[in-house]
């Protein structure tokens, strides 16, 4: 059918050749009128003059306003926009018209735009969500029909665009104020918002002159010239919406300034200047585009029309590879294939390094956390041993650590039979790369804890959230949890280790479930072993989780998630069955803390929020509230995650489970008798449950921010969260850093040794003398039996703490001390009674060779103690006033022979062996420890225990002695126990081997296979045959 | 259930469950039952010998002798020493009274008595300082006390000086008036042990520490007694606070005080050390009369004190009820005339105190010095002087004590309860309550009762304070904390 077309040629200031116009009208008889459109300022001035002065002759060119009201337009059905010297193909107009008239909702169609040599230029374009032009056509792409199926596009470019005339009359023409790149896009956007559709017709083709083709490609980065930013800004301002130009200008200004800074950092000052210049010119651009904004009627476009940033990045890489403009000799040279460039051009894989690694989110987080960690703990670098807080001294030889792990005897006070803490095994293994120095290893761990925890969380969060920025956000939340920072400050080794390892455990468990992989289950088990050693409170939740997983997925391979933990700590676990209080302990020294309220627990505070450094700036009553408020954005993330519809149900469910379990556990630990106060009783640290709460917060944040939503409300909320959560986290880290810098942490270096050197030497010598430390503070007398290993990790035992309390959950009471400790207390009482009592025999029986007196009341106590005969004052040492017990006769020893008349003679033990001379009468061999701990052999045979003799109290280890001279062997190794522990370690080693993923067989299955039928088996057999 | 329902359930759980947990436990206070600090272990110490040092006759060397024959001072009256050993119970329930060994400081044996069912000696005249040792048998504590009485009805030494023989200690403190023309104050130090001890004396006065110089440290050979004259080390000080520290052993310290105004004798007194410094000091003053309170402050900062008194009939008004003591200083507070009352001194920091009471008797005045005392503790034995009226004053307290009388033949009366009242002192006359022939009084204090007591010996001419001796070791418990 016939139709009339008004051709509109945008002159752009050039002259239009008559020949071309004639040819145009010749080829396309439907063109009834040709109008030259010129919106330059001179034309506008002329137009205004003409309006004022109607007698002036009509010029050749019209402005947009005139065009819309021109009579030519009223007579025509369609308007065809052309650029000068463009060559439409003969059937271009018919194709366009056929398509346009076929649908009522279509308002504009565009042809495939080609270059003069046949390369593609534009086949429909779109933008990203923030307004950068994206064209799927790469520079130099030849037309091989690959885009012939595209129809539904966001916009078409102006050359060759066919629009219904009624629409032009209503909505105007593409605006001159925008550049060629965005003109068509803005116009189509305008039409779309008015409810019309846009399509591209690839069968219709138009060729445009070669110059200026570069403007039809995607928005390039790095900027080839300075106008591109202005074009993009103008487009953004034109599409800003009524009344929002101010906010848009502000945003664009901020972005431009940031980009300028980024370019300055990246050593491209020219580009920085362009950005700043564009920012400066924003008001001018806003003014120029003000008329366009009034077209912004309501309605938002569905997000699917936009391109993603990923696509734009690929397009930009292609542009940058070619140089922004199409290269004349783009064609591939014959010769050696250079696939590197091709790979970069034709695939989406980025094989070149990005421009600035500094801006990668993980690097930012690691740098920030490294700086914070260095500022917090730089004092730990230096000579000496670390002590303080909950940190037990670690300056012990590696052999002593191994001996403790393989021996069930705890040399604390008068000795007891207590299995070693599993944490000791973990520390021993971790210190192997450091040459066996636990102190060095743990110091390094402390300095690296923040970046390490962030990195582990970043790597493991990839399972849940693919975007790098969000992963970094999760890592930041993880390390900024107050429980973690408090644990670092207080020296809670176990909790810190668990915190570093926990995300890896969950990641490995997820892989184990997803791939049914035994290797992943074993890796998960190794991580669980560390957590079980570091946070005993989590042993029960871990066991429950593993058993649940085994039951739900009906697979016994998940037992590997428990085996390493059990192997590492089975003696302790068995003892914990009888002493469930051990599950409430925290490894290390006992440190109590101010109990938090449960709403503070719910926000992640393991203790009552209090940082003394903030009290200098804020009133003391406000500090807890301020600290709690820093974590409120996480609570907002919780609510947002719960309310969103499109996030992953699994992540949300897991987060809910973790958070609730953590909160319940923390409440149990804090409010319901998990904690008992100082003086060596159990103090259950809520930080263990805070681990679960931290994981819950990370899960909630992931569910709140992923997947990214494009509607405005979600974007506002998500940006608010993305701003508030890091702000809160950084403030928290800053507060703790300031606390550590200005006030100090409880953990510190000390070069003082626990015992005076003389006393320590006598202990390690043949006589094995112990030291009694008496401390008088505020009228309270403290006594402690000390050996060089006291107050170190060798004598810190959670089982020992657990054994000292008893009672049902609502009435915990300390256990009364046993006979051995009563005897020790009596000796202390007699020494300090000031009555001149001769305590030498009693001291000799316990092998106490030295007495150290210290504390605020030391001088008075010393005078009282000095009254006792046999104490020689040796002098004042770092540890206090040192007195030596000088018995009349032979020296003191921890192993003595008691004769008939009660006199004691020492036995020197070297390397576990000692010689006893012959003697008459009933002699008894006594050891300065509780009965039943040492394995004593006399002349190669097991010694017989002596029961209840005078001179040998019943709690003390006493053995019968023959009359003749004999050899006594004392050892603290129990072969069965050592073998048992060794089997556990072997299990651990096997788990390590299992955890190393050899081969890909475990990845083949992703779901349980259905029962194979006979044909199924035949198929699989033929597959195998086929593949060999 | 399908995914939508599951999502709704999850949403509800995510918001409701934590909210519920917080709401329920939000302000839950930790249950008090289990937050028990691991307290100190109460250790019962084994019984050891109880040693009481009787200082011997009044020392008069270097006394200013008159040049005229008429002004020759009379002879010093010979003191008498009386001892008693009371029944005690061992942890294994055997009951016996410990044996007593009495010997002079020089080593001569006076007498030795084995374990009995109760023993009271006669009043033996002793020319030398005497050591009375109660020998602990097994686990039975040795509840043995002795009292030394110097008594004269006329002459230059008229008056009564009765002192419960002192226990050897490492630190002894006194708060006394200084030496002057009318007062002769001497510190008597004895070493009852076998080792040489060094005794260091520090003195404080009204204006702060007093520099003693070379005499501050004396060395005492085994069984040696030395006397330090306050007139020599702290001349012309109106009041002096003394602290004697012994190094290398235990020292028996007593203070001898005699007043003479020209030719008129104004009394004699011997007293033992006051209680250790404390923030709340109790001084039971069992005799009435014009009283002066001496307060000593061993701390580095000035201390302000408040004094209150509770008499038998209720609170007593004092002429002065508060003062401040300079750092390391001693002050005298004139509190006027008081009836027998228990003084309570409260201070910001630890102080010691003693009260000097003057009494007009037949033929002259005498004075008594009541020191600050420790709390009564389990079983204590107060010896009473023979043929001298004695009376006891218990300070205010809550609860009931028991007193048991020990008769002259060593047998014990039954226990008589003494009810303490909260705001007034209680006076007990042993002769009336326990019988005419009561030689000693056993004060039994239950563990939860906090009380103080002092005794006073009264004759027509003189008055003297009797301090209740400490409980022997083996009775009661000490608090010791064992740390790991």
Automatic annotation (TrEMBL), chain A:
Record key words, sorted: Glycosyltransferase, Membrane, Transferase, Transmembrane, Transmembrane helix
Extent of Low complexity compositional bias: 1005-1018
SUPFAM superfamilies with a match to the protein in the record: Nucleotide-diphospho-sugar transferases
Ranges where the record places region Disordered: 1003-1028
InterPro entries documented for this protein: Nucleotide-diphossugar_trans
Family, similarity comment: Belongs to the glycosyltransferase 2 family.
Transmembrane segments: 357-378, 445-464, 470-488, 519-552, 559-577, 622-643, 650-671, 691-709, 721-742, 977-999
Record's keyword annotation contains Glycosyltransferase: yes
Protein name as annotated: Glycosyltransferase family 2 protein
Biological pathway: Cell wall biogenesis; cell wall polysaccharide biosynthesis
From TrEMBL, chain B:
Spans annotated as Disordered: 106-134
Composition-biased stretches (Polar residues): 112-133
InterPro entries attached to this UniProt entry: DUF5719
Protein's recorded name: Secreted protein
Species annotation: Brevibacterium gallinarum
């Amino acid at each position: 059918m016939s139709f009339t077309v008004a051709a509109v040629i945008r002159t752009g200031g050039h002259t239009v050749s008559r020949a071309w116009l004639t040819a145009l009208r010749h080829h396309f008889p439907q063109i009834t009128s040709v109008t030259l459109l010129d919106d330059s300022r001179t034309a506008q001035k002329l137009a205004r003059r003409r309006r004022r002065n109607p007698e002036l002759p009509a010029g050749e060119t019209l402005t947009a306003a005139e065009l819309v009201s021109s009579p030519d337009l009223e007579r025509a059905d369609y308007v065809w926009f052309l650029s000068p010297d463009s060559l439409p193909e003969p059937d271009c107009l018919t194709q366009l018209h056929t398509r346009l008239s076929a649908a009522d909702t279509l308002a504009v169609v565009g042809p495939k735009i080609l270059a003069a040599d046949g390369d593609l230029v534009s086949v429909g374009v779109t933008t990203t969500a923030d307004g950068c032009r994206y064209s799927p056509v790469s520079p130099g792409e030849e037309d091989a029909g690959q885009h012939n199926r595209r129809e539904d596009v966001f916009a078409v470019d102006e050359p060759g665009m066919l629009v219904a005339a009624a629409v032009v009359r209503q909505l105007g023409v593409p605006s001159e104020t925008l550049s060629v790149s965005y003109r068509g896009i803005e116009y189509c956007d305008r039409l779309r918002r008015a409810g019309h559709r846009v399509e591209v017709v690839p069968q219709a083709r138009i060729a445009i002159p070669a110059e200026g083709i570069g403007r039809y490609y995607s928005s390039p980065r790095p900027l080839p010239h300075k106008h591109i930013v202005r074009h993009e800004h103008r487009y953004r301002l034109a599409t800003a919406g009524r009344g929002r130009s101010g906010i848009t200008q502000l945003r664009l200004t901020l972005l431009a300034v940031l980009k300028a800074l980024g370019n300055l950092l990246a050593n491209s000052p020219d580009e920085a200047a362009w950005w700043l210049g564009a920012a400066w010119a924003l008001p001018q651009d806003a003014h120029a585009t003000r008329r366009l904004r009034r077209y912004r009627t309501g309605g938002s476009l569905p997000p699917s029309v936009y391109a993603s940033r990923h696509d734009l990045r690929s397009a930009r890489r292609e542009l940058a590879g070619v140089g922004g403009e199409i290269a004349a000799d783009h064609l591939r040279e014959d010769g050696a294939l250079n696939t590197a460039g091709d790979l970069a051009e034709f695939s989406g894989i980025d094989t070149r390094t990005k421009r600035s690694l500094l801006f990668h989110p993980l690097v930012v987080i690691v740098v920030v956390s490294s700086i914070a960690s260095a500022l917090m703990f730089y004092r730990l670098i230096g000579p000496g041993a670390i002590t303080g807080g909950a940190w037990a001294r670690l300056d012990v030889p590696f052999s002593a650590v191994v001996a403790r792990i393989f021996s069930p005897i705890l040399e604390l006070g008068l000795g007891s039979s207590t299995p070693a803490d599993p944490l000791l095994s973990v520390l021993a293994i971790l210190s192997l790369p450091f040459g066996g120095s636990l102190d060095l290893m743990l110091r390094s761990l402390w300095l690296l804890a923040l970046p390490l925890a962030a990195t582990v969380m970043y790597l493991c969060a990839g399972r849940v959230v693919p975007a790098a920025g969000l992963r970094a956000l999760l890592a930041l939340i993880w390390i900024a949890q107050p429980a973690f920072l408090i644990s670092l400050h207080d020296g809670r080794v176990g909790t810190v280790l668990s915190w570093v390892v926990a995300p890896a455990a969950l990641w490995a468990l997820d892989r184990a479930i997803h791939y049914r992989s035994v290797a992943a289950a074993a890796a998960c088990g190794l991580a669980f072993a560390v957590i079980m050693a570091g946070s005993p409170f989590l042993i029960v939740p871990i066991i429950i989780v593993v058993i649940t997983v085994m039951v739900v997925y009906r697979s016994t391979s998940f037992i590997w998630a428990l085996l390493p933990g059990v192997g590492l700590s089975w003696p302790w676990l068995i003892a914990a069955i009888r002493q469930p209080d051990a599950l409430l302990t925290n490894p290390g020294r006992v440190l109590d803390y101010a109990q938090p309220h449960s709403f503070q627990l719910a926000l992640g505070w393991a203790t009552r929020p209090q940082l003394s450094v903030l009290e200098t700036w804020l009133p003391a009553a406000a500090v807890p509230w301020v600290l709690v408020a820093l974590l409120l954005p996480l609570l907002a993330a919780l609510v947002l995650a719960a309310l969103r519809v499109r996030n992953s149900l699994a992540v949300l469910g897991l987060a809910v489970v973790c958070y609730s379990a953590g909160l319940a556990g923390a409440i149990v630990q804090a409010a319901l008798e998990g904690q008992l106060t100082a003086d060596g009783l159990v103090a259950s640290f809520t930080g263990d449950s805070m681990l679960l709460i931290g994981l819950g917060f990370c899960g909630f944040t992931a569910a709140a921010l992923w997947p990214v939503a494009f509607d405005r409300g979600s974007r506002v909320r998500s940006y608010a969260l993305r701003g508030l959560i890091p702000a809160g986290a950084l403030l928290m880290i800053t507060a703790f850093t300031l606390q550590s810098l200005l006030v100090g942490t409880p953990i510190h270096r000390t070069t003082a040794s626990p015992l005076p050197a003389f006393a320590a030497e006598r202990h390690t010598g043949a006589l094995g003398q112990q030291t009694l430390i008496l401390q008088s503070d505020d009228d309270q007398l403290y006594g402690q039996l000390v050996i060089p290993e006291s107050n170190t990790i060798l004598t810190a035992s959670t089982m020992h703490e657990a054994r000292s309390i008893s009672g049902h959950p609502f009435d915990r009471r300390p256990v009364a001390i046993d006979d051995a400790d009563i005897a020790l207390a009596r000796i202390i009482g007699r020494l300090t009674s000031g009555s001149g009592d001769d305590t030498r025999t009693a001291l000799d029986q316990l092998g106490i060779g030295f007495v150290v007196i210290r504390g605020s009341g030391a001088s008075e106590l010393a005078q009282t103690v000095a009254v006792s005969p046999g104490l020689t004052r040796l002098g004042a040492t770092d540890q206090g006033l040192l007195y030596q017990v000088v018995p009349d006769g032979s020296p003191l020893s921890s192993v003595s022979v008691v004769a008939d008349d009660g006199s004691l003679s020492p036995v020197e033990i070297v390397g576990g062996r000692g010689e006893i001379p012959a003697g008459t009468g009933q002699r008894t061999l006594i050891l300065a420890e509780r009965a039943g701990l040492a394995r004593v052999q006399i002349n190669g045979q097991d010694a017989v225990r002596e029961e209840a003799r005078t001179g040998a109290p019943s709690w003390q280890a006493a053995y019968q002695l023959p009359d003749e001279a004999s050899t006594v062997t004392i050892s603290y190794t129990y072969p069965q126990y050592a073998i048992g522990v060794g089997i556990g370690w072997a299990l651990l080693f096997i788990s390590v081997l299992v955890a190393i993923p050899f081969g890909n067989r475990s990845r083949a299955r992703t779901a349980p296979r259905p029962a194979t039928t006979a044909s199924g088996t035949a198929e699989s057999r033929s597959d195998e045959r086929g593949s060999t | 259930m399908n995914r939508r329902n599951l999502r709704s359930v999850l949403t509800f759980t995510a918001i409701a469950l934590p909210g519920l947990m917080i709401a329920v436990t939000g302000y839950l206070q930790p249950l008090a039952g289990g937050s028990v600090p691991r307290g100190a272990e109460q250790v019962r110490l084994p019984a050891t010998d109880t040693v009481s040092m009787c200082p011997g006759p009044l020392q008069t060397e270097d006394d200013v002798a008159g040049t005229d024959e008429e002004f020759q001072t009379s002879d010093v009256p010979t003191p008498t020493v009386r001892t008693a050993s009371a029944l005690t119970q061992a942890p294994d329930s055997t009951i016996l009274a410990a044996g007593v060994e009495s010997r002079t400081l020089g080593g001569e044996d006076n007498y030795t008595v084995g374990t009995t069912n109760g023993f009271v000696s006669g009043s033996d005249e002793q020319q030398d300082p005497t050591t009375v040792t109660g020998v602990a048998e097994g686990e039975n504590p040795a509840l043995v006390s002795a009292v030394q009485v110097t008594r004269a009805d006329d002459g230059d030494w008229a008056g009564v000086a009765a002192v419960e023989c002192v226990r050897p200690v490492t630190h002894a403190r006194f708060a006394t008036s200084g030496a002057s023309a009318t007062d002769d104050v001497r510190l008597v130090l004895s070493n009852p042990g076998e080792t040489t001890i060094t005794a260091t004396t520090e003195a404080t006065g009204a204006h702060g520490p007093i520099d003693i110089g070379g005499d501050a440290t004396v060395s005492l050979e085994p069984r040696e007694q030395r006397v330090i004259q306050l007139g020599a080390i702290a001349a012309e000080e109106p009041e002096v606070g003394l602290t004697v520290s012994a190094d290398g052993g235990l020292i028996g310290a007593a203070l001898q005080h005699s007043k003479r105004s020209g030719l008129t004798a104004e009394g004699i007194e011997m007293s033992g050390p006051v209680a250790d410094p404390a923030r709340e000091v109790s001084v039971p003053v069992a005799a009435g009369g014009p009283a002066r309170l001496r307060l000593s402050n061993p701390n580095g900062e000035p201390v302000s004190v408040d004094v209150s008194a509770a008499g038998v009939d209720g609170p007593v008004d004092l002429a002065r009820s508060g003062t401040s003591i300079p750092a390391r200083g001693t002050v005298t507070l004139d509190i006027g005339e008081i009836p027998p009352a228990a003084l309570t001194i409260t201070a910001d920091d630890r102080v010691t105190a003693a009260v000097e009471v003057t009494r007009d008797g037949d033929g002259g005045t005498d004075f008594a010095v009541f020191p600050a005392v420790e709390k009564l503790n389990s079983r204590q034995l107060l010896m009473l002087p023979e043929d001298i009226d004695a009376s006891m004053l218990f300070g205010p307290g809550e609860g009931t004590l028991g007193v048991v009388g020990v008769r002259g033949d060593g047998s014990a009366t039954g226990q008589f309860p003494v009810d303490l009242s909260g705001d007034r002192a209680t006076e007990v006359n042993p002769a009336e309550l326990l019988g005419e022939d009561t030689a000693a009084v056993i004060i039994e204090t239950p563990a939860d009762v906090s009380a103080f007591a002092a005794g006073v010996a009264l004759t027509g001419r003189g008055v003297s304070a009797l301090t209740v001796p400490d409980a022997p070791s083996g009775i009661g418990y000490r608090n010791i904390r064992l740390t790991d």
